[in-house]
Protein: 3'(2'),5'-bisphosphate nucleotidase 1
Organism: Aromia moschata
Amino acid sequence: GKIIKDVMSRGDLGIVEKGSGKNDLQTEADRSAQRCIIASLTQQYPGITIIGEEGPSTETDEVPSDWLITESDPEVLSKICPPEYITVNPEDIVVWVDPLDGTSEYTQGLLDHVTVLIGIAVKGRAVGGVIHQPYHNYKVVEDPKGRTLWGLVGVGAGGFTPVDPPSDKFIVTTTRSHSDGVVVKALEALQPDEILRVGGAGHKVLMLLEGRAHAYVFASKGCKKWDTCAPEAVLEALGGKLTDIHGNHYSYAKDVQYPDAQGVFGTAKGVNHQSLVDKLPQELRDAFPY
Ligand SMILES: Nc1ncnc2c1ncn2[C@@H]1O[C@H](COP(=O)(O)O)[C@@H](O)[C@H]1OP(=O)(O)O
Ligand SMILES: [Mg+2]
Ligand SMILES: [Mg+2]
Ligand SMILES: [Mg+2]
């Protein structure tokens, strides 16, 4: 988070177009935050698989020593770890890193849409996640400290206070920078009272966790495994659900294809996920085959 803020305050974002479609940018903040996270995790956990959005690191990728994070969150360490995670083999663990989610919005100054996502998959299932929001409350406080949410399926979550969505209306959140005709068709099928178009997969799941929307619906193949692993784990640790638009969980095993090719469908705790999925017309679902 600090690296992301430092790049922004220096003013030269170093934007590169990744060229794989519209609004697919990378900045110096994406590159540096990924080097920090991957170097820190690799040093502490050499036996696991770590996959980052900005590609594999190179041998020349020395990071400054003060970028190597070694401390742990005492709140998390005070919890009792479920036995299935204690005995898990490092080979069965994949960590999916999105060093900066919401890059488009970052370059446009919509800073609270930005999150840092670190998702932990065990045997292909997204079970652990950290969502760091470096600019949380930046419009209200002068020098925002940011906040860090975490969740582990079977343990719970922390770093924030969950809120239930309102019961008198139905609010859906979706993309603001990667929309198209199919994305809109899916929203229309759900007949929401309100649509909140905001950036970032992490940020949209925050909207579900804080009761600002009931569902996150993106009928498009633009998201990738690092966008959804951490958000899925935190959401599900608190009783929500995140799947593809057919209602099936993605695998986050090390050999999967990166795109979330069947879209994203997330719901807050207490929302009937399957009955919302069932509202999508068959012809729309047919556009997202396995
Ligand atoms: N077409 C796309 N090309 C590249 N990235 C995408 C695309 N669609 C979604 N994403 C990624 O998923 C996130 C959520 O999408 P959206 O904000 O449109 O709802 C984006 O911030 C972006 O992650 P990132 O910013 O990490 O590259
Ligand atoms: Mg990106
Ligand atoms: Mg992302
Ligand atoms: Mg990213």
